[in-house]
Amino acid sequence: MGEKTKLAVSPAIQVGGSLFTPDQLAKIGTVAGSDTKIEMTSFKQLYLEVPLDKREAIQEELEHAGLEVYPAGFATKSLIACNFCKGAEGAGLETARILNRAIAGIATPTPLKIGYAGCALGTSEPLLKDIAVVKMRDTFDIYVGGEPKGIKTVTGRLLVSGLTEERLVFVVSTLIDFYKQQAKGKEKFSKFVDRITMEQLKQIVA
Ligand code: SF4
Questions:
Q1: Other CB atoms within 10 A of residue 70 CB
Q2: Domain range for residue 138?
Q3: Which Pfam families does the protein's record reference (predicted)?
Q4: Is the pLDDT of residue 103 over 70?
């Protein structure tokens, strides 16, 4: 049997949440084949095992069906967004899509989860992610260092508030770049935040 690789597949960020159409699910089943394992991850991506030599063709087919395809494993996950129940405009759907395009699928020392909530109710549990974006009326707050695993769960701490949409992508991208450059081996993002300190991170994104 030939070498296999994993693809991370998700639907577009949209009002209503992570919604697949029946055609998209059928397409996933068709390209995967009958003997493939498809894993539902906790971060709203399907992991699909595919033959390495067919990876590009399969990715193209999935994207043609309106799906998004990213690397699995040690990379930033696609934005883990809420359901935008306050509407596309009220909850910042376009901003979330722009942010997702900028930050999803970047190789990182450990898998990195970035959450997004369209309002302070935060029903997507953003503060349990490595980096959290919360829309507050017309601006955005960013939290860092959420750690949901284990029995000592830690919620993210407020790094910067009142960000405009224009600054949002810059700040999140800067955090990811800095983590890539400065992490010690496979240091988890929450540990990295503790070591670097919030004060220094605030200066980095200022
Ligand atoms: S975070 Fe706010 S806008 Fe998003 S689904 Fe929850 S309540 Fe609705």
A1: 18
A2: 80-205
A3: NIR_SIR (PF01077)
A4: yes
Measured from the Cβ of residue 186, the count of other Cβ atoms closer than 10 Å reads 9
Q: Residue 176 phi/psi, 5° resolution?
A: -65, -45
CA of 49 to the centre of ligand 1 (A): 32
Ligand 1 center from residue 85 Cα (angstroms): 5
Q: Does the beta carbon of 14 sit less than 6 angstroms from any atom of ligand 1?
A: no
pLDDT tops 90 at residue 123:
yes
| Tens-digit pLDDT profile for residues 159-194 | 999 999 999 999 999 999 999 999 999 999 999 999
Kindly state if the Cβ of 119 falls inside 6 Å of ligand 1.
yes
The rounded distance, in Å, linking the Cα atoms of 5 and 187 is 24
Nearest atom of ligand 1 to the alpha carbon of 126: 1
Which atom of ligand 1 lies at the shortest distance from residue 17's CA?
5
CATH code: domain of residue 172: 3.30.413.10
Identify whether residues 59 and 124 lie together within a single domain: no
Q: How far is the CA of 112 from the centre of ligand 1 (A)?
A: 22
